[in-house]
Amino acid sequence: MTELVLRGPDATLVGTVTGSGPPAVLLHAGGERRRVWEPVARTLEGAGFASIAYDQRGHGDSDGHGADELPSYASDVVRIVETADAAPVLVGASLGGLAAILALQDAGLEARVAGLVLVDVVPDPPPDSTRRFLQDTAGTLAQRRLVPDILDRSATLRAITGGLRLPVLLVRGGGTSPLTDADVERFVELVPHARLATVERSGHLIARDAPVELAGHLIEHLQDAQVRRRRIQRFLDDAHAADTAHPGGTLLAHLHRTGDTLERWSAPAWVVDAARVHAAYGTDGFPHPMPGADPQLLTAVVGARSEQLVARYGSCSRRESYPTFLTDAPVLVDRRTGRKTPLDAIDLRAFVELTAANEIDVFTHSPELAAAHGADVAALFRRWLPLFGDSARTAVEKWARAT
């Protein structure tokens, strides 16, 4: 864990960064502190994800003016997102969720966020029941001017939420939650693409009552295909992949076609994600690394396992590595250092399927390269057929016969 301190003109925010990998920004409820997220953050870290939890202004170690106005909290969300290595999932409990929604009013911020999780909060809480709940459970918090400020913004928050195009998850508490079935039904009508989850053995403060179960729902959302795709797309946009020439068009189109091919071949998600950024470090055949690509950034974009595959793919000496793949001791030989890395069966399959998907796409979209090298590569892939999974083997064999 590392401490994060953001000093601004009207607030100093103090937070904690835990783990490495695709990030989640954890926004606590009113009256709480960032430490409420610690069990959630540990669980996320164990699953290969990073988290940024901070004390919202006027809470815990963070100071700041404007703590009775929701826009101040929303501006803090924007500042925190800017510290993330990759497009994060915003996770907001109660006040934190409302701050996240208001921050997403900025279309530019939405483009930098991979997904949203609302924890026991909807954008338009009924005023009377909200006040009663706060009076019964939150003491002096119910008397703060922040409460009417939020309630007065319900129409705005509802409009923002209804316009969101990013993946959304609503996690609802159990019997003592203030959310009613009517609230949830209204939310589903507003955001038809949202997913729902219920943590039955918790009340409103799910991070406190059932942190491990909540973390499980967050992990599922972080692993969602659309969330992963948005996170990767943000990286590719920043790397100007759409402006980089590649045989048959642009690098962006090639990367996504390669990932789509591996999806059709039923490759694991970590292989598909690696495929969508496989040229990040440059390769033996395309020695042009993407701007800013480094292990820390790429781990935040696709996770450690995918980053490892990308690094191996980029460093591979094809001339020295390929002859070992059908032996009892397949190795990857680094084209820069000569270092040899043994490959187990899973890693070898991932590597050869990524190689095949990449080369087939290049030859399909570049007749010149196909004429010059297609026959030799087809012969190589025919020798590799025992290494592929069933779906990939069928597709590669069909391509090789036609080449």
UniProtKB/TrEMBL annotation:
It holds the Pfam family DUF6817. Gene3D superfamilies: alpha/beta hydrolase. It comes from the Bacteria. PANTHER family: HYDROLASE ALPHA/BETA FOLD FAMILY, PEROXISOMAL MEMBRANE PROTEIN LPX1. Residues 25-129 form the AB hydrolase-1 domain. This is Uncharacterized protein. InterPro entries: AB_hydrolase_1, AB_hydrolase_fold, Carboxylesterase_BioH, DUF6817. It comes from Luteipulveratus mongoliensis. Residues 236-318 form the DUF6817 domain.
